[in-house]
Amino acid sequence: MPLPKLSDDQVEWVIQQVAAYIDQQRQTYRRRALPLSQNQRVAMRPFFPASSLESARVVVLAGERVSNPSFYTELMKMGFEAQGPSQGSRACSSLSSVQPCRGPFWPVSLGLQAAKPD
Q1: Residue 115, in any domain of the structure
Q2: What is the pLDDT of residues 5-46, one digit of tens each?
Q3: Which domain holds residue 50?
Q4: Of 1, 31, 33, 72, which sees the most CB atoms within 10 A?
């Protein structure tokens, strides 16, 4: 599906909204997030630089979900169509270096093909 044609002001607005949403969510979850375990870092080493794995943090959400951005409605008004699952239905959401997950975190939560050790 083609993307809607946006004015420069609309593009700037969307960029600002997305950046603010990611920053706000990252700050919310970072307080509770923990560094990756040694086993998680080893399993993901083929996919990410060591510096990314050292700075990554994970929080397992219990009884809560990451909310959709409040600006989704405005995007639909601009001509975007809802694409893919909502934030709340994803196993993990990527918020820069913080990954809030609805269940136990493992590389397969991110769609990586690393094998989970027994």
Answers
A1: no
A2: 989 999 999 999 988 988 888 888 888 888 888 988 888 888
A3: 8-110
A4: 33
